[in-house]
Amino acid sequence: MSIFKNLYNYRELLKTNVKKDIRGRYKGSFLGILWSFLNPLLQVVVYWIVFPYLFGRGVTGENYLIYLITGIIPWTFFMTSVNMGTSSIKANGGIIKKVYFPREIIPLSQVLSGIVNFLISCLIIIIFCIGTGTGLSYHVIAVFPILIVQSLLTLGIVLILSAVDVYVQDIENIVAFILNMLMYGTPIIYHLSQFSASSAGILYTLITINPLTTIIGSYRNAFMYHQWPDFKSLGLVFVFSLVVLGIGYMIFKKLEKGFAEEL
Amino acid sequence: MDKTNAIEVRNMSKQFKVEYDKANTLKTKLIFWNRKKPEFHQVLNNINLNIKKGETVALIGVNGSGKSTLLKLMTKIIYPTKGTIETDGKLTSLLELGAGFHPDFTGRENIYFNASIFGLTRKEIDARIDDIIEFSELGEFIDNPIRTYSSGMYMRLAFSVAINVDAEILLIDEILAVGDQHFQEKCYNKLRELRDSNKTIVIVTHSLEVVKDLCTRVIWIYKGQLRLDGDPTYVVDEYLEQVAQDHKQERQKNIESGKQKSKAVVYIDSPRDISKVDATDQQHLFKGWQISDSDDATIHFYLDGNPMDIKVDRTYRKDVYDAYFDHYVGFMDVNTIGWQFQYDLTTLEKGKHKFKVECKEKECILASKEIEFENV
């Protein structure tokens, strides 16, 4: 309980940190905060143009634009949070060495600013859904429980990586590589059905047990297919996320005692 | 933990790992995984301490004695290797001023950033912001970005935030050298006010004046251990004696091994350089001071290049003693720093004369000072 009390006492710090994160990231550029949304959109445009040429219209399926947007925007949230989160403790070394505050505020505010960005990006998804005639249904409210599951998972991962990064600097490079792989290990730009269970074998299994596959599939159900997510597999991912978060918190608490000395 | 204690330290030791090259990459960690155990540097050794609520305590000790480390341990920036440190009450540490300041934001916005790091909520900051701005004396500049501030303004703002946080326990590390005389005085007044309002203050400082003036108790840390703990006057006195002794030993060792040469300073207060003196004065006062870290140092006076045959009195010079305390402690006797003698100017021809003071160690001149005066 003391975790929550401590965080509650420092809520103003959390708030200013999130604000600084969101406003500060693109400070000085002309488009400013717009870049947070422009980046994934430009990525979508690239895939949207290139992939149908490579694989043909039949393979990419109908409504590929919406398919891409509903995949890339949640993925951007995950990727940015993990990327920025991993180096967050090191980046804040200056104040960690000088002032006491609950250290978990730093990775937490990274994930929170990711959530804020994601929620704003959801407006873009909705605009595209309506604009392309895909439409919206009440199923869209499922986005919130899905977002909670994804945020918990992301926070757990960020807690582990940010703490370990202080001690082993190579983590940042390893993370960059794994994130790159993971993007192709998650059905973001392709359909899972493009793999057949028999021919892809172990690769197929890996992609299906990837929790992000479930999460992104659930978002697509909510935004694009107007269905409820598969609550059973989402529930499993939820449990998995809680376990990761628990382990992450334990590792973080163990390692945080050496932060000021290692940095 | 005892209810009347603000800070409790029990059997506490702290080691730092000594890393010659930081084997921080995965590669070196994998290759050298069985490398022999790293060396440890023992900074604090088995400290036991109670600091009661409402006490104002100074930690003193020479550089590297571990007093700042102890303060960092109290704030929970670092953690003890052995033993425990417990604190009771809202704690603020002023180890570093201006933590979390962002140069592109205005002074007012930065008050919010900085205060939030100290754990204040928006409401609490709103309630204090006028006090903070008033204390900082920044006036209209408060709404300018702080990158436009002078360093003095920056420090004033930072200190104003820190001191207005309203903590029950305040830990301060050698940061009171802020701004001009006027602002420093204000800071000390504020600290006195906090002390009298029953806050617990722990302060690390080298300024023994501050210690005697502000604190009710002094803890002396010597080579990582608690040496003395008690009334300021007594502890400071013992501390000074030890510092003088250590300093002298080290100096002598260095001089013997040839690493360091003896040094000295001489000065002539009167007559001033290129001044005119009254030729009819039969008892004109020549005075100045001389210090040296050599026991064999002697002082010599010359007039127009000829040694003078005079009787010199040694005088008490507290001002010089304080100014050179850091460098000459252990070699100075405050009662014999100054020199003075009277000279009959009527025996001197009118016109320009040169007066010279030399401090010698055997035949080697350590320091000299020469002035010119005109006998009219």
Automatic annotation (TrEMBL), chain B:
GO molecular-function term, one example from the UniProt record: ATP binding
Signal sequence span is none
Q: Which residues form the ABC transporter domain?
A: 26-248
In its UniProt entry, what is this protein called?
A: ABC transporter ATP-binding protein
- Which InterPro entries does the entry link to? AAA+_ATPase, ABC_transporter-like_ATP-bd, ABC_transpr_TagH-like, Bact_Polysacc_Export_ATP-bd, P-loop_NTPase
Is this entry keyworded Transport?
yes
List the PANTHER family: TEICHOIC ACIDS EXPORT ATP-BINDING PROTEIN TAGH (PTHR46743)
- A Pfam family found in this protein is ABC_tran
Report the sequence similarity comment from the record: Belongs to the ABC transporter superfamily.
Q: Keywords assigned by UniProt?
A: ATP-binding, Nucleotide-binding, Transport
Q: Which domain of life is it from?
A: Bacteria
